Amino acid sequence: MAEKLNDRSALDPLLAQGWELVDGRDAICKTYVFANFIAAFGWMTRAAIWAEKLGHHPEWSNVYKTVDVTLTTHDCGGVSDLDIKLAQKMDALAE
Amino acid sequence: MAEKLNDRSALDPLLAQGWELVDGRDAICKTYVFANFIAAFGWMTRAAIWAEKLGHHPEWSNVYKTVDVTLTTHDCGGVSDLDIKLAQKMDALAE
């Protein structure tokens, strides 16, 4: 089972890449903006397959070319290594 | 260009199918719950392709097996025929 991050500095590289801490909740969030809907949903599709493969799923919303993502681990009630792994993968897929 | 619905009774069949009017905004919304993430995102993928084909896109969010959809037409600042068409298609894809 996932455990809450002990070493919060593990988040620093993500915070440098546009991820932010969510107010009032142990979670991280990021807004991705793509060229258009096809690019946005194409990215979501690739990220969705990775999420399923990792067994860890995002909270996310999409309006046309914008995707808002929030990551947290419900099992442990906060940010875990799984969130870091999925966030890194999402960033890589968006490059 | 899309025009706001004149005949609001055109919404009745959707309201009977679980769509609701959004408070404080001329929009309709519905929550779909699927068996799991694969089913939820699979449905989103089919709906996304239809949205692109219709040239009309949803505001939607997904958490695991749940998808919340809001439809409105930004061009006309309210619900139009395009929203009815996309809502009907989404319901058909979810059957």
Characterize this entry briefly:
The structure is a homodimer of 95-residue chains. The first copy, chain A, is built from three helices and four strands.
Q: How would you portray this structure in words?
A:
- The structure is a homodimer of 95-residue chains.
- Chain A has one domain (9-94): Transcriptional coactivator/pterin dehydratase (Gyrase A, domain 2).
- Helices cover 38% and strands 20% of the residues of chain A.
- Chain A has helices spanning 12-15, 37-54, 81-94; strands at 20-21, 28-33, 59-63, 66-71.
- Chain A is built from three helices and four strands; from the N terminus they run H-E-E-H-E-E-H.
- The model of chain A has no long low-confidence stretch (mean pLDDT 96).
- Chain A is globular, with a radius of gyration of 13 Å.
- Chain A has a four-stranded antiparallel β-sheet with strand order 1-2-4-3, covered by helices on one side.
- In chain A, helix 2 packs antiparallel against helix 3.
- With 95 residues, chain A is α+β, with helices and mostly antiparallel strands.
- Strand 3 of chain A pairs antiparallel with strand 3 of chain B, so a sheet runs across the interface.
- Chains A, B: Its EC number is 4.2.1.96.
- Chains A, B: Keywords: Lyase.
- Chains A, B: InterPro entries: PCD_sf, Pterin_deHydtase.
